[in-house]
Structure formats: structure tokens, C-alpha cells
């Protein structure tokens, strides 16, 4: 079945919320926020918006790679954050790229960068477009003749598999499903499943230091990289394939998380794992949230390394798992390709029981995929549908957005309270009625990664401004309370003010120096991570 990517919202047109699912969603929203105006506001016709004409024209040699089609430009104007979706619904596309450029080889990327450096054209690398922090938005500072969105999905494919070392060479433009399909015949998996998996690329994961679905162990893309190849305006850069090295600062670490400001990731060798055969999972309920946090910390510090250790607070458990539990629900899962995991699961459950946890249903053990029937299954299904549900509510004047952080265990209580206070005060100022939810997306021996959600009734036409005020307030609270401005959503343009305060000043100077050497014309994603370079073309 052919599926059509939505230009304005998440995913595909065919998978949008409708029918019984939509009616149930509206009923839940009405129950959560009585009196909310849930009038639908459908997206406008792109061709009626009158996008500004392209300010630049590519040289004849590159023209076949370029598109100025209004639909193409509109789809590459924003990422897929709440504020992006609402601006699209409002027809607010004030910063579209002048051209969408689709290279399919490194040579073509070099040619595009050469032209853009000479012509003073900004280049915004674009993978699947799932950024939620303004990382792919052509909203650039500086003196540029125009902006191109460099769509890298042409650099696709699993190109080589080394089964002995359990690694694969993969094109940076490969979307998650195609990546796993390419690995499946080998019995191996990258095992990296962010919520955006279906609509994001390997290069995007690397450029943003993506975090996967799994709560512990090798869940960050950083840990799965064996080597990377990058094309920069100053020339190509490729690290050596090694299981580990102490040879000075790591080249890969320079480019991981650089968000396309230092170069274009074209391919990478990635570490793989056998596909799991044994699984076990359990849903543990608590009467007290403090006890639930203590139980989660005990599991995180036990060395058991669960695949999932996700604590849902009472609001999150009700909104996204349909479960009423006064102290929250801890979702546990274990898996292995080598051995049954019953003993690990049983020990984790024992730790939870020692902290007052109860199991409405016994733990499940299987050697197959299993069937999701309890709170864990309902939450997992909801997790995959969340972006679609968010879009449906955003079109009905709801403020539905998330933000995440990480902190050490000793400051979590203070941080959570500070975030709740800041969010509720911002909601009050915005005149919006809402609730704040929290879940742990990842846990470490030394701290959790709290993932907060806001569900509020807004005013149509004002929800972006309302959210921006809330976002600023909670970002200040996160930084002040000792958290990071982001755990796995990158910096982009939206997090930049707080990132500048979080990073050490000497490191900022080093990053700026690296930018000047690798991108002397300052054309790559200007304004992300570092300030644009002075206006000076760089001939080759």
C-alpha cells in the first residue's frame, strides 16, 4: 500500500487519527479538560499559501538535484514539534527553503557545498525531518543569498555487513525500517528504536545523538558507532573501524551531536547485535510515587540491565496507558539472544516488591514476540501513536508537547517539583488549564532521564505563543535545578539559549574554532550550536 507523507504533521496521511480512535481521543481530552474548545482546524492547501519565490537558482550541473515545488518546500520548512505542526496548520511558513536539493552520492554533496560556499547559500541538512527543536528549520541568521534544504534520504542502504565483527556499513540517509529490513537476513539488528524510528534516518540519529527506546544498556547511538564518514566543506573525514581506542580525542565524538554544523554524515559502520529470542516483562503498580522512584533506582543500580525500565507517574499512566495507579506504574522488560531472562526479571520484581510494588498480573515470559495486553502493552501502543494523537489535538487548540532532561538521583525530587511549579505558573499566565505528566524514558545507575508532557486547553491562534512561554519557563527550571537542557532531542535553534549557558566557555571556543576550520564560509546550519561565521566566501 502506497503511503503519503504528511507535509504539515507527523507520519503519513493514511495513518492519521480518525474514526473511533478520534472519537475516543476527543472524549478523553474532554474528560481531562472539561470545557476545552475542541473545534477542528484542518491544514490549508499549500498551493494557496503563496510561498515567497526562490531567491536563488542552482547552476545547470546541479539543477537536476533541485526542486522548487511549493509542496516540497513546505514539507522542508519545519520539523515536527508541536509548534511546527501548529504553524503549518496556521499557514505560517515564513522561512521556507529556496530549494530542496537531493544528492545521491558524496560527489554530488561536495559539488553542492562548493556552490553554496561560493554563492553564500546556507545549507540545512535534512534527514527524515522529525526534528522537534528547530534543527532543520531554514530560520537562519547572517547574510545569505538563500537557503537550501539538503535532503539526504538518497544516501540509503545497508551497503556491507561484517558478520564476524557484527557490524554493518550503512548509508546515512537510510530510514529506520529500511535499515532493519536490510539487516534482517543476517539475523542481526542495530537495536536502535527511537519514537521517530519510522520517519528518521541513521544520519539524523548520529547528528543529534539520538536515544533509542530501550531504557538501559546500549540505547544511545553514540555507543553503537564503530566509525563515521563525513563530508565537510574543508574535505572528507573518516574515522578508523576499531572496537575501542585511546588515541587522543575521538573524531567520532566531535561529529556526533554536531547537527550538521561541521559536516554532512554520509555513512557509518554501526555495531550490531543478534536479534533477541527470550523476553520477559512485568507491570508493577505503586501506591506511593516516592516508593516507585526508589524502586526504579534500585533496579537501575542492580546491574540487571533491563531493556525497559520506564516509570509512568499517575498522570502519564492514566493519559497514555489508561491505568489508574496512585503512585504510578513501572514497566519492566528483559530480553536476550543468548539465554532465558526469567531470573533477571524475577529479581527486578523482587526489588520492586521490597519497595511496596504490586503486580495486578503475573510477569510474562516468552521466547517469541508475545502479546501486549496489560499496561505495558497499552502504553507501548500509545507510545507509537503519540505523535499522531498530538497532531489531532493540536488541530483542536490543545497544547500537547513534551520536553526531556536528565539529572542525578539526588536532585530528581527538587527538579520535578521545580518543573511542575514552573509549568503550572506558566499555564496560569497563559490562561490555559492543563496537567503535567512525567515518565522516565531512560535510567542510569546515577540518575534518571525524566520526560515531561504538557496537556492543556489553549486558544486557537495563540497556542504557539502559549507553548513558547511554557517552554521558556520549564527550560529555566531544568537548568537551575541541575538538569540538562536535553537528553536526546538535540539543541537545534529552540534550545540554543540554554545550551549556551550549560556548556563550558572553553569548550564553546573550541567548537567555534572547529566550525571555522571545517566550514570556513559558515554555510552549514547557521545558528545551530554556534554563531554563524563572518560573511566571507571560500573559493576552492
From TrEMBL:
Keywords: FAD, Flavoprotein, Oxidoreductase. Belongs to the FAD-binding oxidoreductase/transferase type 4 family. This is FAD-binding oxidoreductase. InterPro entries: Alkyl-DHAP_Synthase, FAD-bd_oxidored_4_C, FAD-bd_PCMH, FAD-bd_PCMH-like_sf, FAD-bd_PCMH_sub1, FAD-bd_PCMH_sub2, FAD-linked_Oxase-like_C, Oxid_FAD_bind_N. Residues 354-374 are annotated as: Disordered. Residues 93-275 form the FAD-binding PCMH-type domain. Residues 354-367 have a biased composition (Basic and acidic residues). The keyword Oxidoreductase applies. The lineage of its organism: Bacteria, Bacillati, Actinomycetota, Actinomycetes, Mycobacteriales. It holds the Pfam family FAD_binding_4. It comes from the Bacteria.
Amino acid at each position: 500500500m502506497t503511503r503519503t507523507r504528511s507535509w504539515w504533521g507527523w507520519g503519513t496521511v493514511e495513518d492519521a487519527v480518525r474514526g473511533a480512535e478520534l472519537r475516543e481521543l476527543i472524549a478523553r481530552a474532554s474528560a481531562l479538560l472539561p470545557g476545552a474548545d475542541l473545534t477542528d482546524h484542518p491544514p490549508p492547501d499549500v498551493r494557496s499559501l503563496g510561498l515567497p519565490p526562490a531567491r536563488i537558482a542552482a547552476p545547470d550541473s546541479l539543477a537536476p538535484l533541485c526542486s522548487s515545488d511549493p509542496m516540497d518546500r513546505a514539507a522542508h520548512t519545519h520539523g515536527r514539534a508541536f509548534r511546527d505542526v501548529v504553524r503549518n496548520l496556521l499557514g505560517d511558513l515564513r522561512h521556507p527553503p529556496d530549494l530542496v536539493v537531493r544528492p545521491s552520492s558524496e560527489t554530488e554533496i561536495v559539488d553542492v557545498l562548493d556552490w553554496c560556499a561560493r554563492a553564500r547559500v546556507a545549507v540545512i541538512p535534512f534527514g527524515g525531518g522529525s526534528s522537534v527543536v528547530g534543527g532543520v528549520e531554514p530560520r537562519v541568521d547572517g547574510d545569505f543569498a538563500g537557503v537550501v534544504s539538503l535532503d539526504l534520504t538518497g544516501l540509503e542502504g545497508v551497503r556491507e555487513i561484517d558478520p564476524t565483527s557484527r557490524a554493518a556499513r550503512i548509508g546515512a540517509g537510510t530510514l529506520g525500517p529500511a535499515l532493519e529490513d536490510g539487516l534482517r537476513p543476517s539475523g542481526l539488528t542495530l537495536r536502535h528504536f527511537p519514537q521517530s524510528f519510522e520517519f528518521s534516518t541513521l544520519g539524523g540519529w548520529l547528528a543529534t545523538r539520538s536515544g533509542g527506546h530501550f531504557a538501559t544498556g546500549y540505547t544511545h547511538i553514540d555507543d553503537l558507532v564503530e566509525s563515521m564518514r563525513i563530508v565537510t566543506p574543508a574535505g572528507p573525514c573518516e574515522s578508523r573501524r576499531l572496537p575501542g581506542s585511546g588515541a587522543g580525542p575521538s573524531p567520532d565524538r566531535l561529529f556526533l551531536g554536531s547537527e550538521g554544523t561541521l559536516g554532512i554524515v554520509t555513512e557509518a559502520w554501526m555495531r550490531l547485535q543478534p536479534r533477541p529470542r527470550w523476553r520477559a516483562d512485568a507491570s508493577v503498580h505503586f501506591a506511593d510515587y516516592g516508593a516507585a522512584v526508589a524502586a526504579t533506582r534500585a533496579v537501575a543500580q542492580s546491574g540487571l540491565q533491563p531493556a525497559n525500565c520506564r516509570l509512568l507517574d499517575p498522570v502519564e499512566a492514566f493519559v497514555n496507558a489508561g491505568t489508574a495507579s496512585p503512585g504510578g506504574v513501572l514497566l519492566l522488560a528483559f530480553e536476550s539472544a543468548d539465554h532465558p531472562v526469567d531470573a533477571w526479571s524475577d529479581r527486578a520484581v523482587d526489588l520492586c516488591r521490597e519497595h511496596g510494588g504490586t503486580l495486578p498480573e503475573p510477569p510474562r515470559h516468552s521466547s517469541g514476540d508475545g502479546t501486549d495486553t496489560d499496561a505495558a502493552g497499552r502504553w507501548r501502543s500509545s507510545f507509537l501513536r503519540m505523535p499522531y494523537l498530538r497532531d489531532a489535538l493540536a488541530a483542536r487548540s490543545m497544547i500537547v508537547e513534551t520536553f526531556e532532561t536528565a539529572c542525578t538521583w539526588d536532585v530528581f525530587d527538587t527538579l520535578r517539583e521545580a518543573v511542575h511549579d514552573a509549568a503550572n505558573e506558566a499555564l496560569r499566565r497563559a490562561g490555559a488549564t492543563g496537567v503535567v505528566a512525567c515518565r522516565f524514558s531512560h535510567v542510569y545507575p546515577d540518575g534518571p532521564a525524566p520526560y515531561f508532557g504538557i496537556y492543556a486547553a489553549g486558544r486557537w491562534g495563540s497556542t504557539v505563543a502559549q507553548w513558547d512561554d511554557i517552554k521558556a519557563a520549564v527550560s529555566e527550571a531544568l537548568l537551575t535545578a541541575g538538569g540538562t537542557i536535553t537528553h536526546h532531542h538535540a539543541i537545534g535553534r529552540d534550545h540554543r539559549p540554554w545550551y549556551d549557558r550549560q556548556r563550558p566557555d572553553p569548550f564553546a571556543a573550541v567548537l567555534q574554532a572547529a566550525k571555522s576550520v571545517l566550514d570556513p564560509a559558515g554555510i552549514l546550519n547557521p545558528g545551530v550550536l554556534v554563531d554563524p561565521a563572518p560573511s566571507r566566501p571560500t573559493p576552492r
